[in-house]
Amino acid sequence: MARSLLFQAGAIALATCAMLTACDQPKPRDAAAEKPAGPAQTADPLPALPDWATPLMGRGLREVFTADAECIGNTDIVESRYTGGSPGVKIIGWGWDPATKAPVSRVVLVDRDFKIAGAGEGGLDRPDVPTARADVTSGQTGWGAVSPLTSGPVDTYGVIADGKAVCRLGHLEF
Description:
By secondary structure, the chain is an alpha+beta fold. The protein has one domain. It is built from three helices and ten strands, in the order H-E-H-E-E-E-E-E-E-H-E-E-E. A hairpin with a 4-residue loop joins strand 9 and strand 10 (about 165-174). The N and C termini lie far apart (about 50 Å).
C-alpha cells in the first residue's frame, strides 16, 4: 500500500513538472535558443499587420512605449514562414497581465536594435496555460504576430495599460 502511494506521488510530481514546462519563462536575450523544428512554409505573402501597428513599424520601442509593466508569458515558436512576394514569419506565444487579470491583447516584436519589426493580437485559445498556472484564469491567452523578418532574434512585448506600457514576453532566435 505504501509503495503504491509513493508511486502515485511520484507520477503526480512528474505530471506537474511536464505541465509547467509548457509555460516556461521568457528566454534571456543572450541565450542560444534552439531553432524551431519545421514551421509550416507557404508561398503566400506575409499577412497584413493589424491596422494599429502599421505606423509603429521601424520606430524604437522606447520612442513609442516609455513605460514598463509586469506580465507573464512566453514567445513560443515560428508557426509559419511566408516565402511569397512579401516574405516573413508568424510567431506565436501567450501573455497574461496580472494587474488586470486579463490576457495580453496586443503584442509587438522588436529586432536586435529594439526597433518594432512586427505586431499581432491576442485572444487565441491556449487551454494549456491555465491548466499549468493557477494564477492565469483564461484559456484565451494565446497571441499571434507577423513580421517581415525572415531570420534573426526577436523580443516580444505585450502592449498593456491602455497602450501606455509594455511588458516583456520573451525572446526567440530563428
